[in-house]
Amino acid sequence: MGGDCCGNGAPQNGPPQPAFAAALSNLEDQQNVAAQAVSANGTATNGKAAPQTKASHKDWVDKLKPYFDTRIQLFDKYAQRGADERERARGENVQISVKLPNGSQQSAVKGVTTPMEVAKQISSSLAKRVVVAKVDGKDWDLFRPLESDCQMELLDFDHKDGKHTFWHSSSHILGEALELCFGVKLTIGPALEEGFYYDCFLDDDRRITDADRAGLEKKIAEIIKEKQSFQRVVVTRNEALEMFQENQFKLEIIGGLPESATITLYRCGPMVDLCTGPHLPNTGYLKAHSVQNMSAAFWRADAKREHLQRVYGITFPDKKSLEEYKHRMEEAKRRDHRNVGKQMELFYFNEMSPGSCFFAPNGARIYNSLIELMRNKYWDFGYEEIVTPNIYNLDLWKTSGHAEHYKQNMFLIDIEKAEFGLKPMNCPGHCLLFATRTRSYRELPIRWADFGVLHRNEYSGALHGLTRVRRFQQDDAHIFCRPDQVATEVANCLKLVGEVYDIFGLDFEMRLSTRPEGFLGEVDVWDKAEDALRSALDSTGRGWEVNEGDGAFYGPKIDITVFDALRRKFQCATVQLDFQLPIRFKLQYQTEGTATERPVMVHRAVLGSVERMFAILTEHYAGKWPFWLSPRQVMVIPISEASHGYAMEVKARLHKARFFVECDLADKKMEKKIREAQLEQFNYILVVGEQEKQENKVNIRTRDNKRHGAHDLEDLIATLRQERDSYSLHSLFGQSSDTVAAVQGDSVPVPQAQKPAVNNQPDAPMLLNETK
């Protein structure tokens, strides 16, 4: 996460030192948790005028102006050192070579030539498009001189690192506008997955409201029009302390760094900030901007510390992109699972139990269908389900190591003078069960699944619908296996993930996170484990990426990110190797001889938390659930009162076939009943009258008002069974079997209609190594 948060510096050459990277990452994570509204759909402060305070915004701007002026003078002083170095380099004229991705070479002068100058040598149109360089794999300012022979890429806004730089620079522009408009003290301002924010402190209990939005956007427009250059300098720790003497937050950050640290500063206009960079050449690269919502946060995620205000923004290199973004945000608002959940009567929250969801009958149907899907897949993939306690003595968490690192996120209870905790995860309990008796190598792999209820004491301000809760269930599983079984077991986990996500219609990407600094264990063990994960990833036939050094200290992992209908990313599934818990719990199995060995433990989740996947799917489908997952599958509507009896008979037969069916006998026009059923997202509306009764048929139409005419009732039930049990995303009416197979894909077989999914179990588990 280095380089994406204004609030720390970096050494002059190379990546941030460990102290900088750690401080940057921890601070940004803390601030994100502390924010009380973190999504684009969050609630902004109201537009009412702020209450009377001791001093106005203008008073504070005037009060801080001498500090801003001193900051600029010091920056210019330090910038002169860099200018002198460049002049010396110009005189020395040391030639270096720059290798481009196409294999061509460009000549340059060490300490003088910048990536932008190289871009101009290649093409003027390229120079206009690029926003940042990547030099030997490290993000690099276009205006920063190259320092040695190197490989270089030039990235535009369409590249993810280009977007990051664009929005990181935009956060500085927002910070400048906040200082000039409101006299704030800036804390941190990182780029996000989409957009950016800046956290700031306002003295005298002032606040920024929606009424201030127009003025803030006007100031940003002025800064953009001025095309202010971004400048970079390197200073010592003491020089940084002198520069930010009026900002207690920056002083606290700097004070936490080593005495010998070198720190990078960036300036645009009068705004100077601690930052690892890189940044755009100037503010004029922004062609469209919008101030989004505002929210509250606490400094360092500590409710006892200073109250901050967070301002979100979004920018683009063209106006069309901003309009498209606004359209997507409107669509995201329409799909927001909190709104859809309320409209469809799926779930509710109550202040009597914050962060714990009440699932109404319709919501419980979806929730249980998700769990039932996983149970069916567990049968196919050879898992056994277990049930473990919800509360454990704290000694268990001391053994596992969670008490040391996770205690603040646990709900603790004193029982008979002993400290207990509600479990925030299942793995320690599974270790206890494994250790109940001697295990043989012949038993391995053991695959245990657990839908146990988990509790995590999330900060109240971070709670957000179903995506951030305190009480939840995971489709959690742990595999205990021999080292030689790791590759096959992980490959089967990824095969399971692929099958489930294909059922949902979710695209996904996979990333391998490798050995981090401070890892535990032997290098050889890690190398073999990472090779096993690479082999498993290759077996999927899908592309994947590597996050070097991003693994956990106890083992490498694979993270799977899904994309919803709006192409938003959500990290859900994970496959994590763990070498340490088996050691902590002294787990072992007997080999072919008399020796014993430690098993490898694989942590695995597909849905992640059921609650979070519920939210993702609600927004992905926008409430238009596929038939197998729908809480409102069929509505029966009689043409007249004379048909009420047959309508109820149809309902009874569908209910017996285990479909969610309702019958509308209200005294309303048939057309209105049909429209209401469509708006309530019933997948099928069955209209019945005297003719249908005589022929034992029903007249079928869908929620999208596609009419399929009269069908025999038994044929209808058979087709609905097939649609449900095949987990089809589409209606099967009017489609041939070949079309259905093409829609569903080879990985989702269509079982026979008379076999419901709950009983559709093979004689033996179908594992990846058994199908080759």
Automatic annotation (TrEMBL):
Enzyme Commission number(s): 6.1.1.3
Lineage summary: Eukaryota, Viridiplantae, Chlorophyta, core chlorophytes, Trebouxiophyceae
Domain Aminoacyl-transfer RNA synthetases class-II family profile: from-to ranges: 361-626
Domain (TGS): residue spans on this chain: 92-156
One annotated GO biological process: threonyl-tRNA aminoacylation
Cellular compartments per GO CC: chloroplast; mitochondrion
UniProt cross-references to Pfam families, sorted A to Z: HGTP_anticodon (PF03129), TGS (PF02824), tRNA-synt_2b (PF00587), tRNA_SAD (PF07973)
UniProt GO MF annotations: ATP binding; threonine-tRNA ligase activity
Subcellular location: Cytoplasm
Region described as Disordered: spans on this chain: 1-20, 749-772
Catalysed reactions listed for this entry: tRNA(Thr) + L-threonine + ATP = L-threonyl-tRNA(Thr) + AMP + diphosphate + H(+)
Protein name, per record: threonine--tRNA ligase
Domain of life: Eukaryota
